[in-house]
Write a structure and sequence with these properties.
- With 84 residues, the protein is an alpha+beta fold.
- The chain has one domain: Translation Initiation Factor IF3 (2-Layer Sandwich).
- It has three helices and four strands; from the N terminus they run E-H-H-E-H-E-E.
- The protein has a four-stranded mixed beta sheet with strand order 1-2-4-3.
- The longest helix is centred in the middle third of the chain and has 10 residues.
- The radius of gyration is 12 Å and the shape is globular.
């Protein structure tokens, strides 16, 4: 289990290695997002676009943007605007 931390209202979470090992930390990430304070900016690094995670963020009422940083390195950005 990873430990996620928030510094200056920003949470940077790099799960590329875990996903490539076959792990699926989606529930862990969502629980962290739910417990984070409103206004937190989430930056999640993935080895692929992470469409299921984007869909989950959207179902929670959050907008999520994904950018390809380089091959096999994507960054999902989202801001928690309301309590979930």
């Amino acid at each position: 289990m990873s430990s996620f931390q928030i510094e200056n209202q920003r949470a940077v979470i790099d799960i590329r290695e875990r996903v490539l090992k076959g792990e699926h930390p989606r529930r862990e990430i969502i629980n962290f997002v739910k417990s984070a304070p409103v206004g937190t900016i989430f930056e999640i690094h993935l080895p692929h676009r992470g469409e299921p995670l984007v869909a989950t963020f959207q179902s929670l009422g959050m907008n999520a943007i994904v950018n390809e940083i380089e091959p096999a390195h994507f960054r999902l950005m989202a801001i928690k605007l309301n309590e979930i």
